[in-house]
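[09:14] KT: can someone run the structure on this one? pasting the chain below
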Amino acid sequence: MCGIAAAAVRKELKVPDFDMSLKAMDTRGPEAEGTWTSSNSNARLGHKRLSIVDLSASGNQPMHNEDKSIWVVCNGEIYNYPNLRSRLEGFGHKFYSNSDSEAILHAYEQWGVECLIEFVGMFAFALWDENKQRLFAARDRIGIKPLCYKETKSGIFLASVFSALLPLLEEKPSPDPLAIAYVMTLGYIPCPYSIWKGTYKLDPGHFLLWSEVSGLQVQKYWEPPCEINYDGDYSEKKWAEFFGNVLKDHLLADVPMGLFLSGGLDSTSVALGLENARENVTAFTISFPGNRFDEAPVAKKVADYLGMNHIVRPIEIKEVDTLIDSVSKSFDEPQGYGALLTMYAVSEITSREFKAVLSGDGGDECFAGYTWYLPDKLSLLQTLSPLFQAIRKNIRWLPNRIINEKVISQFYSLHSELFRHAWRVYPRFLPEEVSFLFQPINLKFDDELFLEPFNRYNSNKLPRLRKLQRIDLMTFCSGSILPKVDRASMAHSLEVRVPFLDHRIIEWALQRPLNKNEHLLKTPKQLIRKYLNNRVPKEVLTHPKQGFSMRIMNSFNWNSAIEVIRNSWWVQEGFWNKSWSDLIKDNTPLRNARIFNLYMLAKWANQWMNQSS
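[09:31] RB: done, structure tokens below
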């Protein structure tokens, strides 16, 4: 895994120095650094390398084609590289390395921007075409690897993360209130929005082209299925064969591979698939000593049953505030999820043993494992739906003997399907409460803006369950889970691969017709359970689902957190309403979750606003 930077400017302008940009990505690529400048000095590419495939110097980047007219920097892995290389050599292309990234150059030579449909992998790259004087950049289909950019009058600037993009800009942008609104209501900032005003994250499955003549063009090249395919083979036998082949592709590496093994259905499925394929991968498990949520005993039974080498390491965190400071420094955008803390701590421990690991992320989205997919059980309150809007404006100010979290959820279930889904995924703040908080700067945040990211990926051609899976893949998964995994792992120079989010699995899973009673979710992940049944210890199938949130929050000082919020940049600079504390007053439903959300925003601002000023 790596970090990349790119800049292309108009004639007679000088591209910025990359020193600070590349330094900001030291942990993304601690093993090699390289830059290249175009013949007319109007384009520059930079790269920080974490070597996983082709460990030799010939795998360093930027990389070039045969006549050095095309140059590329890439962050990620092209898993079908061996087959792709063989095909390209058949067309007459000459390779000088054994790096999978070099295949991007020759594929672009062969097929132009349509080369993207040939790639299987996780990637974000920037390519400069000297002959066309054009920058071509792209991001993988589901957004596993990040890429952000800003176009100015001078040209265009790109980087893996905002900490590397900011040093390339002449003027530092200010934070975007709309982005904070999304953190408060969704827990993350959805694409293409970003924390910095006027800068953007390239959407998953999109590419951009930039030249001095045509300017910036952003286009989509892939999206998840939006219809059911009734002609496919979706048997458990087909899945076992298909999954095994995908896993083999994801083992492309010249370093030993590990596997995050939690004892849950998804990571156990990966372990079983590797065992069936007779691939030698070491399982790695984090234990939470003395915690009732500790899954290490179940993971050990799985590893022993499958005959896998197994490493168990304990995690004990006494200073939560110190951990949050480290997370805030490493995450270039704020999130409201406590799982960031766990992932950061787990990555730090794992990086002592491995440079690359497999993970089970994505299984819940592809095979409907989340509890929020359960069908609604609306009470008699549904008869009050015409009164919803009038009641909603004042619902949180009703006496606590009348209002509680259950009643709130029932009231919000009277709203639209997407609103109901969003609230079930991340119940924190209402759009009108965001507008109240940002009253000083007159931000108007309504239901339409709130649900816009969901509407982008809504498909009425899919049944309800598949529709929500599709939305979650491109919003919650792409906008929250994948940045969490990327930033936490890259802070410790660790590559994490997510085979469940291979686009081939996504297409196969989302096109599947609903099985009998699947829409009722009486038995979530039916196919995965059939795959595992009688092949792994029974404890895996009966083990209650565990989230990946922080499991040490009992020691968290909530009163101290409120003081941090009170003294935060947002409050001191007048971004937030002076009555902000009304949103977290005593006995407010979901109060601790709301405090934690604002606290994470405050901690992020403490780390980043000084850097941006």
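[09:33] KT: thanks! Residues 379-385, 398-403 have pLDDT under 50 and may be disordered.
[09:34] RB: yep, looked fine to me
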